[in-house]
Amino acid sequence: MEIRIKWGVLGTASIAVKHVIPAMLKSKYCEIIGIASRNIKKAKKVAKQFDIPKYYDDYQKLLDDEGIEVVYIPLPNHLHVTWAIKALKSGKHVLVEKPIGLSSLDAQKLLEVSIKHPNLKIMEAFMYKYHPQWVKVKEMINKGAIGDLKTIQSSFSFFENNENSIVNKREFGGGSLMDIGCYPISLSRFLFDAEPKSVMAQIKYDTKFKVDILSSVILDFDHGSSSFFSATQLFENQEVHIFGTKGSIKFEIPFNPPPNKSVKIWLIKDGVKKEYEFEGCDQYTLQADNFSLAILEDHKVSTDLKDAVNNMIIIEKIIESNDQEKRIYL
Ligand SMILES: NC(=O)c1ccc[n+]([C@@H]2O[C@H](COP(=O)([O-])OP(=O)(O)OC[C@H]3O[C@@H](n4cnc5c(N)ncnc54)[C@H](OP(=O)(O)O)[C@@H]3O)[C@@H](O)[C@H]2O)c1
């Protein structure tokens, strides 16, 4: 018999409506039971759009529904920790959007509450890791396909100057580092399987919004380095290029490969460029499968909350490096 985990969603965020809810509906382990919005009309509209049986005009009402086992939290960043804690205290497993919160202290607070609820799973939603291209790249690096991993160059950018966007709201945890710079930080720590020893950065801020709009960063690891920029008022682009002592790996679309289109990576080694192509697949479905299976089979989630705290620490060190105009040691 098929067993599906019963999900609820807090808020009618565009990431939820455009990507994550449709992806969850494709998962054989998920069923979406309820959606909550501050505005009942929005909740009803989204519920109707996706055949979600229950809708609520209050996030807490969804958390009080005993039929819901797990909640997905795609709220603005300043609300992640507050609602994740409320969800845990209401007995729900939690998948919370990246970045985990506003600060490492914030994230640590959530970690401490989660420790008091050992039977509940909680994870930060870094969906990119579930795409087969990243599974393959991690395996290639671990098996020495490019020799010793030495440096990673990445960038992530788009153009958004609408003052109503949460990306441009400082008090909501806006800015390029929080929104997309968190990906190159995450992938660098993931591939090196280590924390940086030091951080150097230069940041440009929007004069009106006071959020970072162009952050240029070097992370120094024991065995190499990672450099990247994140930008929110720049030509839309995403790149990751990984270099080892014997070869390199380049991605076609590292972070948002579309679900219905194949994507490629290239291994360049010994003068030969070898192409690997991955069939279109939905990384948000794979993320939902992964988290639901952790609940169903009661095993550890693939990325624990300590990892989310550590990613947040690096964002803070980057800002410190810019503020103090010097390299910051961890
Ligand atoms: N993993 C990914 O690929 C990905 C991509 C984009 C964004 N994200 C993350 O997902 C989260 C949401 O991003 P988004 O761009 O989808 O946000 P969004 O469209 O602005 O939606 C945020 C939702 O939060 C709710 N909300 C509660 N209090 C709010 C407030 N004071 N102001 C505005 N909205 C409020 C609203 O729902 P109701 O009005 O219905 O209550 C709103 O629809 C962020 O943490 C972001 O970093 C992840």
Q: Do you know the CATH architecture of the largest domain?
A: 2-Layer Sandwich
Helix content: 25-40%
Q: How confident overall, as mean pLDDT?
A: 97
Rg from C-alpha positions?
20 Å
Number of distinct beta strands? 15
CATH homology superfamily name of the largest domain: Dihydrodipicolinate Reductase, domain 2
Using the coordinates shown, work out and report the CATH topology of the largest domain: Dihydrodipicolinate Reductase, domain 2
Give the ligands present: NADP nicotinamide-adenine-dinucleotide phosphate
Class from helix and strand fractions = alpha/beta
N-to-C span: 50 Å
CATH class of the largest domain: Alpha Beta
How big a fraction of the residues is strand?
25-35%
Low-confidence stretches: none
In which order are the strands of the major sheet placed? Answer: 14-13-12-11-7-10-9-8-15
Indicate how many domains the architecture comprises. 2
Oligomer: single chain
Overall shape: globular
Q: Main β-sheet: number of strands, strand sense, barrel status?
A: 9 strands, mixed
